Amino acid sequence: MISAHDLSPAELAALLAFHADAGVEWLLEEEPVDRFAEFEAMKAARSNARTATASNRAEAPATQPAARQTAAAAPPQSRENRAPAPAVSAPAVAIPDAQAIEEARFAAESARSLAELRVAMEGFAGCNLRNSARNLVFAEGDSASGIMVVGPMPYADDDRDGQPFAGRLGEMLTRMLAGIGLARENVLLSNVVPWRPPGNRVPTAREADICRPFIERQIALAEPKHLLLLGNFTARFFFGGSDTIHQLRGEWRELPIGGITVPTLATLHPQDLVTAPVNKRFAWQDLLAFKARIHG
């Protein structure tokens, strides 16, 4: 086993980046812990506790009469003097899916600007993802550019910074856009789901349905002339079906959203390029097609 002390600074940074991409956020122990030994010790402690309890019960009859006499001699407590029963808190009630979707739709449609929509989303409590996420990751960039880029969800760096496409994947997206003459600050960046799922897992169908009104309202308010979708989840979310991103990429589609129709192209997510660099050539083909379309 290689110790961290034997790694160079560059190797250690690469290892930490790997763990971060895998969803690891906390390093709790510097030394290994034998959980099996802990379990055996726990069992032994429980066995000793049972033995002690049984011994106490065997001695209890000799002391019971005195205890009964003491109890009989004690005056009865009046109703006013009795200690109140401990309060029992009511269990939390989960919002039904249909109600959560309806509340999300009402909140989204009530917003007349992206700023109002952000406030509405910050106050929305119908999606369980917000309970584990650090930040709401809202759209960022130039909403008047006519170009919008949508990914699936925030990752660990996005959740930490409260910004879409931060960290290593954000740097990859910046290079992708720069390759076709676009700066990330000159386009509008967003995600289908605005809260990071634990461990970077794929959002569930329920979570996606609850968040749908928010991303559709973002697109309707920004009114982009061209829309670029990143990754498998995002393409399926907007196009439907179960095809993979390799089947959905590179083909222009007219996407009706919020009363407008937006020319839309799907391509691979920066994560796809990081994990499999061979995908870069496919993404580059799609980006060239996107460049040709936005320049008329």
Please provide a written account of the structure.
The protein has 296 residues and is of the alpha/beta class. It has a domain at 97-294: Uracil-DNA glycosylase-like domain (Uracil-DNA Glycosylase, subunit E), CATH 3.40.470.10. 49% of the residues lie in helices and 10% in strands. The chain contains 13 helices and six strands. A six-stranded mixed sheet has the order 1-3-2-4-6-5. Helix 4 (97-110) packs antiparallel against helix 5 and helix 4 runs parallel beside helix 9. Residues 62-93 have low confidence and may be disordered.
| Second-tier CATH architecture of the domain at 97-294 | 3-Layer(aba) Sandwich
CATH topology of the domain at 97-294: Uracil-DNA Glycosylase, subunit E
Order of strands side by side in the largest beta sheet? 1-3-2-4-6-5
Can you identify the CATH class of the domain at 97-294?
Answer: Alpha Beta
Mind summarizing the main beta sheet? 6 strands, mixed
